[in-house]
Specification:
It is a single chain. By secondary structure, the chain is of the alpha+beta class. It has helices at 2-19, 21-94, and strands at 103-116, 119-124, 137-139, 145-152, 157-161, 168-173, 179-184, 190-193, 206-209, 220-228, 237-242, 250-256. It folds into two domains: 1-96; 102-257, Thrombin, subunit H (Beta Barrel). The chain contains two helices and twelve strands; from the N terminus they run H-H-E-E-E-E-E-E-E-E-E-E-E-E. The strands form two sheets. It has a six-stranded antiparallel barrel with strand order 1-2-5-4-3-12.
Length: 257
């Protein structure tokens, strides 16, 4: 029985080969075997491509972060250079300011502005550790009077501005002999007191310190903005716009020796 089966199978194969069917069956079986391998190879290739793309994305992301950090470093360097330029310019200009004999000069900066019930205040980045004391005088590089030191801490100081209520400075009109008391007011302006009718004064005049008190002479206080004369009173109402603008920046401190 087995021999007959083998002989029959052999004859069948010979017939199939002779008529061309054997090659088709062979291709069918080979394709059936190769197809899963091809799909597996394709999947492995796709996974490898995705993995390579992820790696490239990580590399690009890291390069982008490095570039951002480098850009920030350049900006920081530029800011430091700009700050040094400003500091050098400030120091060069401050050399032209003559310090009165009874004062020494300290360089500082304003870093905060505030309005309190007692008046307008600024904070300096210099304190008792730097030699600053109460009643020291603060001016800008343009010799504009900012105010006087009211309170001192080791590392900072509070400065009462010239336009604060209770502030008084002996002043005069630049280029004229008109003098009086310049007082601060809650409205934020300075007021020129004791200016009698007929005095040589007009809107637009510059008011400076006279030097007849504890303040050095010729510090700029402001500009006359309004003059009101009632006719029935002895003194005029003279309002001055302060020359000091609220800002954060460098100042000079005149310390009483």
């Amino acid at each position: 029985m087995t021999l007959k089966f083998i002989i029959s199978a052999f004859i069948l194969i010979v017939v199939l080969v002779s008529i061309g069917y054997w090659a088709g069956l062979q291709n069918f079986f080979l394709a059936a075997i190769a197809d899963p391998s091809a799909k597996l190879f394709e999947k492995i290739s796709l996974d490898r491509l995705v993995l390579n793309q992820v790696r490239e994305f990580k590399v690009l992301a890291q390069k982008n972060r490095d570039l951002e950090l480098y850009q920030q470093e350049l900006l920081s360097r530029l800011a430091r250079l700009e700050e040094l330029d400003k500091e050098n310019e400030f120091l060069r200009r401050s050399l032209n300011i003559k310090v009165p004999p009874s004062f020494t000069k300290i360089h500082g900066s304003i870093f905060s502005l505030s309005s309190a019930p007692s008046g307008f205040q600024v904070l300096l980045n210099k304190g008792s550790n730097d030699g600053v004391a109460v009643e020291d005088i603060v001016i800008t590089n343009e010799q504009v009077l900012v105010g006087i030191v009211q309170e001192v801490q080791p590392s900072f100081s509070k400065v009462k501005l010239t336009n604060s209520p209770g502030s008084e400075i002996m002043g005069r009109i630049l280029g004229a002999s008109t003098t009086g008391i310049v007082q601060g007011n809650a409205d934020g302006f300075l007021h020129f007191e004791l200016i009698v009718e007929g005095e040589d004064i007009k809107e637009g005049d510059v008011v400076v310190s006279s030097g007849r008190d504890n303040f050095p002479a010729s510090l700029i206080l402001g500009k006359v903005e309004h003059i009101q004369s009632d006719g029935g009173t002895l003194f005029q109402d003279v309002r001055i716009k302060p020359a000091f603008e609220y800002f954060t920046g460098r100042v000079i401190i005149f310390h009483h020796q």
